[in-house]
Structure formats: structure tokens, C-alpha cells
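Example 3.2
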Amino acid sequence: MIRTGKVIEKDQDLLKICFEPAEACGSCGLCGRQGTTVSIPGAAGVGDTVDVELPDAQVLKASLVTYAIPLVGLIAGLWLGTELFPGREGLSILTGLAGMLLFFAGVKVFDGKLRQTAAWQPRIIAIRPAEAAVSVVAED
């Protein structure tokens, strides 16, 4: 997957890049975000437009981990709550939510470890300097 973003801040060789929401996300409105910001090592300057790549298989795996694992925690917690507190739906729901939060915490720990793996790191594949973008607009 390749996304195009704009460098909004540079701290030594770490770039803060802002991405506009994907077209597929435009109609949903659930997250309420205007854009996504990530920090990636690179050599671009503030105002430059960059293309950032993350392998498609990694994006699919990340989505699966982010959504499926907490769902499994919710279901496991609901089952456990039903077994521990028969006939007490409120406690079963609380146990389900606790399971979901516990599994979500596990995802956060797992995410921290994946961030250290080179295969999961986004990388800049193209840099378009800010001056070039301005001159192209001026020609039209």
C-alpha cells in the first residue's frame, strides 16, 4: 500500500508526515479524523510531499490484529462471565468488556514489538520537494 503525505515537521532525520484520509474512509465518518500523522525516518524537508509504502500483507495483518484480537477477548470474556455468573447478565457484560480491554492491552504490547521489526516499518519511496509542487501548480 502506498500513501502520499506531506512532511509537516522534521527533527534530525525523523519526519512527521500527515496523510489525508483515504477515499474509502471519506464516507464513513466514524473516526472523526481529518488526517493521520506518522513519524518515519527520512531525508525530506518540511513541506515536501512524500510517497510512503507499507507492504499490503502487513496492512492486512495489522487490521486483523487490531480488530479481531479484541473481539476474541470480548467473546471469551462474555463466555467466562456467563459461566461464572449464571443469570446475571450485567456481570457477564462487564466480564466481556474486561476481556476485550485485556486483549486490547495485549495488542498494544504486540504493536510495540512489531514497531521494532524492519518488515513492519513504513518507508519513504519518493520525495517531491515543495518547490517542484509549487512550480507545477503555477504552470497550470
